[in-house]
Known about the structure:
By secondary structure, the chain is an alpha/beta fold. Helix content is 39%, strand content 11%. It folds into two domains: 2-359, 3-Layer(aba) Sandwich (Arginase, Chain A); 408-531 and 563-621, Arginase, Chain A (3-Layer(aba) Sandwich). An eight-stranded parallel β-sheet has the order 2-1-3-8-7-4-5-6, sandwiched between helices. It has a six-stranded parallel β-sheet with strand order 10-9-11-14-13-12, with helices on both faces.
Amino acid sequence: MGTALIYDEEMTKYKLLWVDPACKIEVPERLSVSYEALVRTGLSDRCVSVPPREASDAEILLVHSEEYLEGVKKTPHMTLEDLKEFTLQYGDVYFHPNIYHCAKLAAGSALQLVDSVMTGKVRNGMALVRPPGHHSMRSAASGFCVFNNVAIAARYAKQKHGAKRVLIVDWDIHHGQGVQYCFEDDPSVLYFSWHRYEHQEFWPNLRESDYDCVGKGSGAGYNINVPWNEVGMENGDYLSVFCHVLLPVAYEFCPDLVLVCAGFDSAIGDPEGEMCATPDIFAHLTHLLMNLAGGKLCAVLEGGYNLTSLAQSVCQTVQTLLGDPLPQLANVRSPCESALESLQCVRSVQRRYWSILKHAADSPTTDVSTKRIKLAKAEEEKAETAEEERGQEEKVWPEPAERLRPPVCSASVLPDDAACPDGLKRLVSSKDPEPLLVSRIKNRSTEDAGDADGVATFSRLYTLIEKMRTNEIGNGVALVPDVAAAMECVVQDLGSDLVSRVLVVCVGKEELNCATADGSEDKQEQKGKYYIPVCLKKGCADTVGFIQAVFGLLLPLGYEYDPGLVLLVRMPGSGVGDCMWQQLIGLLKGFAKGHTLVLMQTNDGACMDPTASALLGHPAPPLQELLTPLPDDGGALERMRERLQAHWKMLQTTVSSGN
Length: 659
Ligand SMILES: NCCCNCCCCCC(O)(O)C(F)(F)F
Ligand SMILES: [Zn+2]
């Protein structure tokens, strides 16, 4: 299924008609440069073009009051003076004779997107709209927003399409207070927002934007605020919050639909956000949400004021929705102290509502944070004087790397008698393997590696890895007689030749003696750092444990390790369910530009189809709802994370008690 793109140049036909410094950044070019970038890169042609429509009164009234709608209805006929007058009652927003029309188109675009996704016409999609929506409230416009496009879309998805649980992810750099107010007592809509906050010093300067505002009444726990109390947040900060807060909770919530308040003022270069995350981060943020709700994801544009980073970020998002390989995130750094403080605060207040966070640490003691504020203030005074001297320095960042789709998406190495699943390209070794390789394989411990078809299998494996390295093939699966031998062969022989780092994910019981990254003997601490056994109860039927292991350990570590190849090994008798297996394959695509090699034992052929489906990029089915989490083993995983975070900074979720 395809990706919908909703855009109409009519939504560029309104602008600020008077002087207002707070609003001058919200210009029509935001929309046109975004769309033009999608056209220029050829991405728009690959999408299913869906026309916008005007939202009806009834649909707008799903969120807004009649008196507010009646008021906005009058704006097309107002004089300039009346428009200014009407605008004065609201904050940081402006009206224009054509903005009511555009606001109906913006809301209607979000509804068209929901219809296209919920009816299965497309898998996912993006609506490029203006005016944005997430600040507007039941009876008030705010922050360039007139109607709350995403809030209306959430209510509409429930009412018209029977969605039971809707997740709203707001990665715009401003707090969407309008969305929070709309759903704060509603457990069927989970609202997650990160936002520049600076201890309430940043717009909209609301006390209720802080981490301790978790929702009200039956909605308690269904509102997650992550305040950024400093600027300059980077890719590692964003990924840490996704892995250690949003994704575990989102998987526990198990939504039927994911709506994204896709604001790109959280990207580097934006004058509002002043953050440092690069546009390619949105490729990963989108990817990490695409295995929820069976892939049903609707992204609706909110903010974004640096026209260069906005256009790049929009392209990164759409390209991921289309299923293209993800860009390698260069040197993801560990979260900064301020981000860790926010992370720790959010997890500590949310743990009482989400079993997945049950073992989260307490909030940091106040002296840490107050000390930080004093330090920050001192820093700030110094910085401001420097700033005045230097003036706003221009942020520069590299153009996002090309994300080329390999000629072959997925390949297979199979015994001659095994059937090749649809869509996979069967690999037959074209030439005899190099003698050097044969000798290496021959002196492999297991005898079967030595015989003819053993050598053939391994030489095909070598070919497969080689073709992934050159991006002729995206990913692949190999059915081998002895999966442990094949794993060792890939790690010891094939992998190290072709890529500098291999992330080996071994599912099922296995004591693998992997040499450390530099191939030296297993020194104890090296083994500790590069060998991370995770035990899940009841085999792998333990969903909570699986989610904790994947999001609390595997993904953060994988982003920090940044492998050139991912080797996913399914040990015989692992008992991992198809759902989890497909989720794991889907999520691991985020690494190594999607170059994942799956190894399975021949007698595990039954799970070849779900494996092929996941490798081909079909969305994984949702994990079954976590109704009764298993009696947990007292946070064994947390303890493991504690131990490992000395080696892997991306595993941190608390401020270092040191300073
Ligand atoms: N320095 C100028 C002060 C601007 N203060 C208001 C900021 C509004 C942000 C709007 C947005 O980006 O959140 C949306 F997504 F809604 F467009
Ligand atoms: Zn914003």
